[in-house]
Amino acid sequence: MLQCSSKADVGKPTKKGTEHVFFDTARQGAGEHNKTITTPPFALIPPLDDGDDQNDGGIPKSSPEPILRLQKCLIRPFYEGDAAAIVKEANNPKIARWMRNTFPQPYSTEDARNWISMATNPAPLLDFAICRTDRNTVIGCIGLKTRDDIHVRTVEVGYWLGEKHWHQGIATEALSAFSQWTFDNFDHVLRIEAEVFEGNEGSARVLEKAGYAFEARKRKAVEKRGLVLDALTYCAFRDGS
């Protein structure tokens, strides 16, 4: 797992707009890789009235529209009102343990604001909030890190989820739908890969359930908190192979 923060250009999205790039459910079943995506059509959150920061249901009024609305979560761009929720979920050593060192620990409000500034700056947007469906509050993050030169057709996916939301199928659902969204919206991408540290069995299971296949073990590839660990690479392909 990693916190993606790349600002490199991944290329123009194939659907109109970046903050309003929506999952085209009509494409499901059009290709072999689509068969693993079983998420239902999503509904847009309607615009909310100006006024207080939250409406009567506790939903932030100024939050962006989602790119995906799923059964267990929705995925949308970050905005500045997410800082407190990010800190609440991310300030946890059990999460930071499996992240790259750019992920702060402890995780402060300033860290959250810096992350929101980075995540909302690129065009197109590559990093998104995983949110609860009932209150639209952030419970995690998912995003892409681009490659260049001869690796331009590969992107790396990364994600994290707050501890109290583990073991509920949320990460698997988010990763499955977001991977399909990536292939649908970036025509040049043929391969999505993810890296997990040795011992991170939970994230490895999420990847496998989302249709990713184990590809390689890079021995003694990373050092985290003084420990030298292997890194495991998982991949998903546009053609489903």
Overview of the structural elements:
The protein has 241 residues and is an alpha+beta fold. 20% of the residues lie in helices and 24% in strands. The chain has a domain of 164 residues: Aminopeptidase. The chain contains five helices and eight strands, in the order ββαααβββαβαββ. It has an eight-stranded mixed sheet, sandwiched between helices. A hairpin with a 4-residue loop joins strand 1 and strand 2. The radius of gyration is 17 Å and the shape is globular. It starts with 67 loop residues before the first strand and ends with a strand.
Tell me the CATH architecture of the domain at 25-188. 3-Layer(aba) Sandwich
How much β-strand is present in the residues? 15-25%
Strand order of the largest sheet: 1-2-3-4-5-6-8-7
Order of helices and strands: EEHHHEEEHEHEE
Q: Main sheet, how many strands, which sense, barrel?
A: 8 strands, mixed
Q: What is the straight-line distance between the termini?
A: 23 Å
Number of DSSP strand runs: 8
Summarize it:
The protein is α+β, with helices and mostly antiparallel strands. It has helices at 83-90, 93-96, 109-119, 170-185, 201-209, and strands spanning 68-69, 74-76, 127-131, 138-146, 154-161, 191-197, 213-224, 227-237. Helices cover 20% and strands 24% of the residues.
Features:
single chain, 241 residues, alpha+beta, Aminopeptidase, eight-stranded mixed β-sheet, 5 helices
Layout of helices and strands:
Blueprint: E1 68-69, E2 74-76, H1 83-90, H2 93-96, H3 109-119, E3 127-131, E4 138-146, E5 154-161, H4 170-185, E6 191-197, H5 201-209, E7 213-224, E8 227-237
Parallel strand pairs: 5-6
Antiparallel strand pairs: 1-2, 2-3, 3-4, 4-5, 6-8, 7-8
Helix pairs in contact: 1-3
